[in-house]
Amino acid sequence: MNLLVYLAGEIHSNWREEIQEKAKALQLDIQFVSPMTDHHRSDHIGEEILGKQPNAITKDEAASQINNLRTTILMKKADLVIALFGEKYKQWNTAMDASTAIALQKPLILIRPESLHHPLKELSNKADVTVETVNQAIKILSYIYE
Amino acid sequence: MNLLVYLAGEIHSNWREEIQEKAKALQLDIQFVSPMTDHHRSDHIGEEILGKQPNAITKDEAASQINNLRTTILMKKADLVIALFGEKYKQWNTAMDASTAIALQKPLILIRPESLHHPLKELSNKADVTVETVNQAIKILSYIYE
Amino acid sequence: MNLLVYLAGEIHSNWREEIQEKAKALQLDIQFVSPMTDHHRSDHIGEEILGKQPNAITKDEAASQINNLRTTILMKKADLVIALFGEKYKQWNTAMDASTAIALQKPLILIRPESLHHPLKELSNKADVTVETVNQAIKILSYIYE
Amino acid sequence: MNLLVYLAGEIHSNWREEIQEKAKALQLDIQFVSPMTDHHRSDHIGEEILGKQPNAITKDEAASQINNLRTTILMKKADLVIALFGEKYKQWNTAMDASTAIALQKPLILIRPESLHHPLKELSNKADVTVETVNQAIKILSYIYE
Amino acid sequence: MNLLVYLAGEIHSNWREEIQEKAKALQLDIQFVSPMTDHHRSDHIGEEILGKQPNAITKDEAASQINNLRTTILMKKADLVIALFGEKYKQWNTAMDASTAIALQKPLILIRPESLHHPLKELSNKADVTVETVNQAIKILSYIYE
Amino acid sequence: MNLLVYLAGEIHSNWREEIQEKAKALQLDIQFVSPMTDHHRSDHIGEEILGKQPNAITKDEAASQINNLRTTILMKKADLVIALFGEKYKQWNTAMDASTAIALQKPLILIRPESLHHPLKELSNKADVTVETVNQAIKILSYIYE
Amino acid sequence: MNLLVYLAGEIHSNWREEIQEKAKALQLDIQFVSPMTDHHRSDHIGEEILGKQPNAITKDEAASQINNLRTTILMKKADLVIALFGEKYKQWNTAMDASTAIALQKPLILIRPESLHHPLKELSNKADVTVETVNQAIKILSYIYE
Amino acid sequence: MNLLVYLAGEIHSNWREEIQEKAKALQLDIQFVSPMTDHHRSDHIGEEILGKQPNAITKDEAASQINNLRTTILMKKADLVIALFGEKYKQWNTAMDASTAIALQKPLILIRPESLHHPLKELSNKADVTVETVNQAIKILSYIYE
User: Fold this and answer.
1) What is the DSSP letter of D115?
2) Which of D72, E5, E23, G56 fits as disulfide partner to E28, beta carbons 3.0 to 4.6 Å?
3) What sign does the dihedral G142-G144-H3-H9 (CA atoms) show?
4) CB atoms < 10 A from the CB of D87, how many?
5) F5 close to F82: Cβ distance less than 8 angstroms
6) What is the DSSP letter of F27?
7) Which domain of life does this protein belong to (chains A, B, C, D, E, F, G, H) (predicted)?
8) How far is CA G85 from CA G8, G67, G88, G96, G124, in A?
9) Model ipTM?
10) pLDDT tens for chain G, residues 1 to 146
11) Are G115 and E56 in contact (CB under 8 A)?
């Protein structure tokens, strides 16, 4: 049984590579997709494709519509979403992707440091499972295939 | 035509009262609902109803399940969602409510200060309309009834 | 039994008033809603609420997001959609509203002059009923209540 | 990851071939489908299959039901819809296909010349992305696969 | 609690009046709707509204699109469907209404004479309840309100 | 704001009366519905309406189809489901009603004695909130209206 | 592009074989499925699997639940439904399958002799296309692949 | 045609192996999935992955969220669900899985000993087919492929 897993969140660490390598080592039949993880590229894709925009807000609007199209196509195909919150930043796209998964009834694993348990308590309650480390998420993936 | 409008977000200012008073002054046939806006009460509702919990995380889990039940019932009945982001805090519940509205195909008005345009660009692109002030949101409510 | 009927299309004639008066004369328990029919107002609502925009395209974007929000709320509440095409103009909003009604499984009556039967043939085939005059649409409304 | 892309609109230029060749050159794993692009054939398919019809309207009705059946099957399978409006014609089938995609929550890229920005403003606002050239659409397809 | 009940089927006996009178006598808070039960009127409504048609088939097409529009609006509002098959006729509209109710997940009571148990066995198995008399259906309506 | 609450489960105690009285005392605008709580009547409703059945299994089949019709109509109208498990019996109808509520995305409050926490752990995890007493459920109802 | 086509209706002629052979000759990438077409087997499958039943009605109930399970699984997987009505019999299962396809938004081709146009007028109006011969249906299948 | 069948229920006998072997012997193109059938492992998976929990209830909560995630992913992919009730235990997970299948409109075969016909009567009435032995379920699987 093949699963498509969408990896939302944190783009400043290599957690996606870690999950993919471990899933491969465990021979789990999983394909992974992600939002654009190159921050600079995701910020400039609008002007790159649509040309120079009149101001910073319309530049953002141009970029975001292309990023959202990409994300929507990928998430609609996913069987499972894993969203990782880090210690820093507002991470509203992570919250948006996680909440979209919940509302679309896509199973969701939330990874967040214990320190964030209070501000994420409502989102965590809506997630199917909340864990603290990438390793714990890997163990769950493995358990699905037992 | 009666509308039920769910007011998500910011609980440290009186913007909900402002919207309700102005809607009343304009004689718009609108009923407003909200998440629990008493921060202390929303944090302690779990232990208040379910009793003392073993630690801070399970206390949060207890509170959040009751807050989410309340929110879900109200949002399912809403015709329109208005979500206001302020300058401070991570506001992940606001992002969660806004994203849930989008995924449930509930029309969404996003209110955010211009300063937040960059971190909120993807969410803003998914919202039906993004404005910067409560007054602008009121004008849209009024336009619906013209 | 009360019905809410959304009247899409043509804004340069008084067909909406005609339908409403005749429905009233026939004592049909129907409430009617419409997209913004004041052309000038619908074109300028964006700048009126969101302020001066940098160019004509962003001015249009500002107006259209507010018009679409208004339309979405009204169409979601409708039990029936009536869309009238006139002889002139591209009328893409009429085509959009009619197609949206079909995809949302809202019953649809299409009113179009016989002269347009060829370019509207696919849309006409998807509509529940196609007629040529407002009077014929009124007779159908009356038949629903027999 | 394989995608099925439905190409709606304009049948008097070779933009579909252009997209397909460039997608192939970029080695994107995409399969393309379209409405019937042979205008004469799409107009006469009704009488060809169902036999001579009594008049021009019923001839159109015969053709359109077969064209719509074909289109419905293809669009239901699509992961993404690209709709191209040209400078000429009423193009109501393009508007219908684009609006159907939106209502079915299929991601939609709209291609239209800048000159049409005003009459298409509401449809453009509902599309996920609006561009002006086929090349820009290709770049978006490529970005999805990065 | 108010219920809207759609009464499909048999138009050559007065079973609808019987149900309505008994429901009234039992003071059940039920509103009843039906397809057009005047056979002659339902056959001629197409030409009455759309004018003389070229042949018998297009006359039927004209009538049926108006009858279907009427039926669709009513059934979408119904909380419960009761479909009565009589001994005679093919009654394909009854089968169509009953099957539509099932596919739309509207609860369905089937009334049919015992003699029809074999040809209706699959439809009966899909119905929520199958009874043989109008009186039995009334008893079920009454039981819902206990 | 009026809510319709479906009270599933336990029919050998007066917990439904308790909830209704307390909700009334608190002036909560709630209407309550339930499955048939007269055990003898729910077991015999099949033969009462459909007549003597050939054996115990077909007698049960006759009763259950009428009970299920009744339950389906009521649950589809509910805004919230409360399911109470007692210490005794297999209570498979309670499990069925609770699971149906979850799958239909109806918010669910589960009431169960602490002693049942282990066999009900998966159902409890899927419920929105799990409590141990009727009083706790009342407090949640009250919190929704704050 | 592979399609799964469900062939409903008429079991006393070899029209299914005809369609399958012609589709093969035309090299259309189509897989066909059907309800049980062995009449005797479909009538007795209940007792064959569940054992002797107390009477004719319960024997029918036993058979129909297994036939319906089989049909439901197959129709849910279908991309297109073709339903053929013959001159004889009540054919309520054909009407049920065709109506189910419509309500599930599965594209539907109806094949019926011209002589049945009047009693099938409402069902025909709801079908995507109505034809009179198997050959016409084949031509439509071929047109989908052009 | 490949089917994915989810086998819910009873974990203390080898009925899953029996079904899989017989399906293989009959060369049915079926893939089977199940909830975790190792009772000890399913009870401890929470602490194994999430670490030591403060008490028995939170230990159960930890395990159940992971078991539910696993089950949800598998059931969403299934074409058919088979649920087996044994003579012993409360088997609320079996009731939950069976009811979820019904509410998600997944076809359901219920296997239960005749002795349980009374307490399972409502669930049995909602199932597509109820049988008493694994062999009968196998015969139905085989009939689907005829």
Assistant:
1) G
2) E23
3) negative
4) 10
5) yes
6) T
7) Bacteria
8) 9, 19, 8, 12, 11
9) 0.93
10) 899 999 999 999 999 999 999 999 999 999 999 999 999 999 999 999 999 999 999 999 999 999 999 999 999 999 999 999 999 999 999 999 999 999 999 999 999 999 999 999 999 999 999 999 999 999 999 999 99
11) no
**H chain contacts of residue F129, beta-carbon cutoff 8 Å:** none
With contact defined as beta carbons under 8 Å apart, do F131 and B41 qualify?
no
- Is there a contact between F66 and E139 (Cβ–Cβ < 8 Å)? no
What single string gives the DSSP state of each residue in C81-132?
Answer: EEEE--SSS--HHHHHHHHHHHHTT--EEEE--GGGTTTTHHHHHHSSEEES
For the four alpha carbons of B50, B53, B59 and B64, in that order, the dihedral sign comes to negative
Mark yes or no for CB contact A99/B95 under 8 Å: yes
Q: Which two three-digit tokens encode residue G27? A: 């090299």
pLDDT 10s digits, C17-40: 999 999 999 999 999 999 999 999
Chain D residue closest in CA terms to E59 = D58
Element (H, E) at D110: strand D108-111
Residues in chain F, how many?
A: 146
Distance from CA of A58 to the nearest CA of C (A): 8
Between helices B15-25 and B134-144, what is the axis angle to 10°?
Answer: 30
Q: What is the DSSP letter of F145?
A: T
Residue C22's closest CA among C131, C145, C141, C112? C141
Q: How many residues does chain D have?
A: 146
Spatial distance between the Cα atoms of G60 and F7, rounded to a whole number of angstroms:
36
- Say whether B100 and A103 touch across the interface (CB within 8 A): yes
- Chain D, nearest residue to E55 by Cα: D54
> Torsions phi, psi of D8, nearest 5?
-90, 155
How many C-beta neighbours within 10 Å does residue A14 have? 13
Side chain identity at residue H88, one-letter code: K
Shortest alpha-carbon distance between residue G26 and chain E (Å): 32
Contact check, Cβ <8 Å, E128/F48: no
DSSP string spanning E71-120?
A: HHHHHHH-SEEEEE--SSS--HHHHHHHHHHHHTT--EEEE--GGGTTTT
What is the rounded end-to-end Cα distance, in angstroms, of chain D? 11
By 3-state DSSP, what share of chain A in percent is helix, strand and coil, each rounded to 5?
Answer: 55, 15, 30
Q: C-alpha angle with apex C52: C51 to C55, nearest 5 degrees?
A: 140
Quick one: A115 exposed, middle or buried, by C-beta within 10 A (0-12, 13-18, 19+)?
A: exposed
Name chain H contacts of B54, Cβ cutoff 8 Å.
54-55, 58
Q: In what order do the strands lie in the sheet with G3-9?
A: G30-33, G3-9, G80-84, G108-111, G129-131
Planar angle of CA H41, H47, H48, nearest 5 degrees: 60
Is residue G9 helix, strand or coil? strand
Residues C73/C91, Cβ–Cβ less than 8 Å: no
Question: Chain B: residue nearest C74 by CA?
Answer: B144
Q: Extract long-range pairs of F27-32: CB within 8 Å, 24+ residues apart.
A: F28/F3, F28/F141, F28/F142, F28/F145, F29/F1, F29/F2, F29/F3, F29/F145, F30/F2, F30/F3, F30/F4, F30/F5, F30/F141, F31/E1, F31/F2, F31/F3, F31/F4, F31/F5, F32/F4, F32/F5, F32/F6, F32/F7
Mapped onto helix, strand or coil, the DSSP state of residue D81 is strand
Nearest alpha-carbon partner for D40 in D16, D20, D12: D12
Q: D31-66 pLDDT, tens per residue?
A: 999 999 999 999 999 999 999 999 999 999 999 999
pTM score, two decimals?
A: 0.95
Cα of first residue to Cα of last residue in chain E, in angstroms, is: 11
Half-sphere exposure of H82 (CA within 13 A, CB side): 27
